[in-house]
Specification:
single chain; 133 residues; alpha/beta; five-stranded parallel β-sheet; two-stranded antiparallel sheet
Amino acid sequence: MNSESTIRSLLSTPARWAVVGLSPRPERASHDVAKFLQHLGFEIVPVNPLVDVVLDQRAYPSLLSIPARIDVVDIFRSDPGPHVDEAIAIGASAVWMQLGVIDEAAAERARAAGLDVVMDRCPKIEYRKLDLT
């Protein structure tokens, strides 16, 4: 279940977000959302094995290859399960599955490991709904 308090907390607390599936193409939703999060002051870490740099940030092939702590893992992939498992393995605080990304079993694994979970939501849309500006 997506609680408003969890969403509000994740979007109002400074954090480092790994964006899984972050595209270098500006017309893609992942690019737009990550750029919006950057504009809000969040640190963005692209996770995309096909590119070296996105939004002026070094890209990594997987969550496990990121040398810094990650607070929130934002998933733009249609099969989020393996990425949720990596988020658990690296000790992330939360996983955020984008609009249309739903995996109840992976969400339950994350919750059982103590992570906050947001599923089938977009941080850009939620930020505007919560009027956090």
